[in-house]
Write a sequence for this structure.
């Protein structure tokens, strides 16, 4: 039996002793010591490899266990399934929140700006400089629709304008960007 399977086999027995302890701190120790590595792996897998967010999910799971310590003490055989359900629900909430998150709060690091060659970096610099020639409305529409990949409806909702106005601004913004790029010698 491996170390992992040993801890799994002993998990319920040790969990029962800790959960039935007099304070919620023993429950939190149980969550982290016995279930933490499995919960962290599970959350990381559900989050597509985002270990940092998975650690946040584990911490929130432990907080919720602490808040529900009296319930979990009386239902100690359900601790592990309860923890996994909480992790799954928190990850689902995270995915929903990301899709509904206000766009102005989306960190720039979330944009996929991976470039593999110096030519791409130069092109990126030229495009960035050309974007500066556009007016603020045009820049905003391009950033929302092309960098953040928002739909017309999402962009309209974010800017609080009709979808037709978004389409019009996007058309004229792309035309202006194309002209700015051509002025810099970049074919579009």
């Amino acid at each position: 039996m491996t170390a992992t399977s040993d801890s799994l086999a002993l998990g319920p027995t040790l969990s029962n002793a800790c959960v039935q302890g007099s304070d919620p701190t023993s429950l939190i120790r149980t969550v982290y010591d016995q279930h933490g590595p499995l919960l962290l792996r599970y959350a990381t897998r559900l989050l597509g490899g985002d270990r940092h967010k998975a650690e946040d999910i584990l911490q929130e799971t432990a907080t919720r266990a602490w808040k529900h310590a009296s319930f979990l003490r009386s239902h100690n055989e359900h601790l592990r399934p309860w923890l996994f359900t909480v992790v799954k629900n928190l990850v689902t909430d995270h995915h929903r929140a990301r899709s509904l998150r206000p766009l102005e709060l989306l960190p720039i690091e979330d944009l996929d700006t991976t470039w593999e060659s110096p030519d791409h970096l130069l092109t990126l610099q030229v495009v960035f400089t050309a974007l500066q020639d556009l007016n603020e409305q045009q820049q905003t529409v391009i950033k929302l629709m092309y960098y953040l990949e928002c739909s017309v409806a999402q962009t309209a909702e974010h800017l609080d304008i009709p979808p037709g106005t978004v389409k019009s601004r996007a058309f004229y913004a792309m035309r202006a960007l194309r002209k700015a790029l051509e002025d810099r010698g970049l074919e579009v």
About this structure: The radius of gyration is 25 Å. Residues 62 and 86 are 9 Å apart (CA to CA). Confidence is low (pLDDT under 50) at residues 1-22. The chain has nine helices and no strands.
